[in-house]
């Protein structure tokens, strides 16, 4: 309903103010290629725009590069005090964004800015959020494809929200969506889940990500596993339900086996062969207990992070005027 009622007003608003949020960690070479092309597209689509680069603790020449770009106007550079992670960097950028719409994209050139005009058209038609969805994962390893499929199955099990599979952070969001995201108090943020949780009218556009031109991917296998654990513990209780089911099954099997041994001893007279049975059972139950403690510990660690109430990120520098500059330039041209 919100999207339908907003459609006529957005159709009349041909040039919304646009904020582009780009989290970056050691992406100096890729930013040199991304920023000029992104600026050209925004100039053709909006009368007032800003590009917000959030430096998530880079150690390359990102700071020097952005010091030159912010002097040109329309650019804002947020430098975090250390590496807080991509989710925190995105939150910092969205908190600084002032446009009618906010567009998040990565700095590695795998999120093509050429899709921005299509996203804006969908927004004018009434969509509150437009996300880019990978057309396929054929370029990834089989392990990563299977892992991603399993993750989305777990997140979708018994959950009232639907997380769009293969949709990343490359998306356009209306101002109301950004405001809703900023109201969420989580410290450990799984943005894919939060995008889905806030709801609103969402549409998707398929795309094929181009190859990364400079530098290796920042997401190692261990980081991907950590990312998956964060998502599961934030948006699914399936592991806890599985543990409860395992406990019930083990208890029933133990009761049935114990009953069998008692009946055999009373009616057949066979002595209970204790040592092998007991050791096997103890080793099995010890493994189940340790696995259960690990799963419960993952959930408790999330509680521990939340109750400390530490800031999601800390800023070292905030340079540039962003949207104010391009808005003033537009007024001067008029």
TrEMBL record:
Highest taxon of the lineage: Bacteria
TM regions (residue ranges): 242-263, 275-300
Residues in Glycosyltransferase 2-like domain copies: 19-177
This protein's GO CC annotations: plasma membrane
This protein's record includes keyword Cytoplasm: no
Record keywords: Glycosyltransferase, Membrane, Transferase, Transmembrane, Transmembrane helix
Membrane protein topology class: Multi-pass membrane protein
Cellular compartments annotated: Membrane
Keyword Lyase annotated: no
Gene3D superfamilies recorded: Spore Coat Polysaccharide Biosynthesis Protein SpsA, Chain A (3.90.550.10)
InterPro entries per the UniProt record, alphabetical: Glyco_trans_2-like (IPR001173), Glycosyltransferase_2 (IPR050256), Nucleotide-diphossugar_trans (IPR029044)
Sample GO molecular function, one term: glycosyltransferase activity
Record protein name field: Glycosyl transferase family 2
